[in-house]
């Protein structure tokens, strides 16, 4: 059953069909969150939260595009909220002491984040959706609520920035 029919059936009281939606999209949403957070437990927690939000708001859902894109928008917002909360605790963790292996992993994450942080929020999101989730430009444009040409431009600009930083030995 396609997503539109499935959601219509759920709205008509067949709530047991949520299981089908969860089975279909759980892994994709999880990997989306994981790519943003690089934290398995947080990605699992946020994935569950995405589906809880969908369950609570399914009656208000309007089908304007792919349901998958709707899930990515929710997941993206939750990841942003998580980053805001997490940034308060990073310094405390480092101060408490870590092993050399943990320090090395933190350094790698910091280097990748530094390059990604050189991108605008929109460019970073486009790169993640395009290369980690293999979405098409038109789907990314819908998720980002922007036009196809601006999405292409932002991706090209992001790739130029990434390329320059890789050539400069900064990655």
TrEMBL record:
InterPro entries: RNA_pol_sigma-70-like (IPR039425), RNA_pol_sigma-70_dom (IPR014284), RNA_pol_sigma70_r2 (IPR007627), RNA_pol_sigma70_r4_t2 (IPR013249), RNA_pol_sigma_r2 (IPR013325), RNA_pol_sigma_r3/r4-like (IPR013324), WH-like_DNA-bd_sf (IPR036388). Residues 21-88 form the RNA polymerase sigma-70 region domain. It comes from Clostridium cavendishii DSM 21758. Belongs to the sigma-70 factor family. ECF subfamily. One of its GO terms (biological process) is DNA-templated transcription initiation. Residues 111-160 form the RNA polymerase sigma factor 70 region 4 type domain. This is RNA polymerase sigma-70 factor, ECF subfamily. Keywords: Sigma factor, Transcription, Transcription regulation. GO terms for molecular function: DNA binding; sigma factor activity. SUPFAM superfamilies: Sigma2 domain of RNA polymerase sigma factors, Sigma3 and sigma4 domains of RNA polymerase sigma factors. CDD domains: Sigma70_r4. It comes from the Bacteria. Pfam families: Sigma70_r2, Sigma70_r4_2. PANTHER family: RNA POLYMERASE ECF-TYPE SIGMA FACTO, RNA POLYMERASE SIGMA FACTOR.
């Amino acid at each position: 059953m396609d997503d539109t029919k499935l959601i219509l059936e759920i709205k008509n009281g067949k709530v047991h069909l949520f299981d089908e939606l969860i089975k279909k999209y759980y892994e994709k949403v999880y990997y989306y969150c994981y790519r943003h957070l690089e934290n398995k437990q947080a990605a699992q927690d946020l994935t569950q939260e995405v589906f809880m939000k969908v369950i609570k708001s399914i009656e208000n859902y309007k089908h304007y595009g792919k349901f998958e894109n709707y899930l990515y928008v929710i997941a993206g917002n939750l990841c942003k909220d998580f980053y805001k909360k997490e940034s308060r605790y990073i310094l405390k963790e480092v101060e408490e002491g870590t092993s050399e292996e943990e320090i090395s992993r933190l350094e790698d994450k910091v280097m990748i984040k530094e390059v990604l942080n050189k991108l605008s929020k929109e460019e970073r999101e486009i790169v993640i959706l395009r290369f980690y989730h293999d979405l098409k430009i038109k789907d990314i444009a819908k998720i980002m609520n922007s036009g196809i040409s601006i999405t292409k431009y932002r991706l090209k600009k992001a790739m130029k920035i990434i390329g320059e930083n890789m050539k400069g030995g900064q990655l």
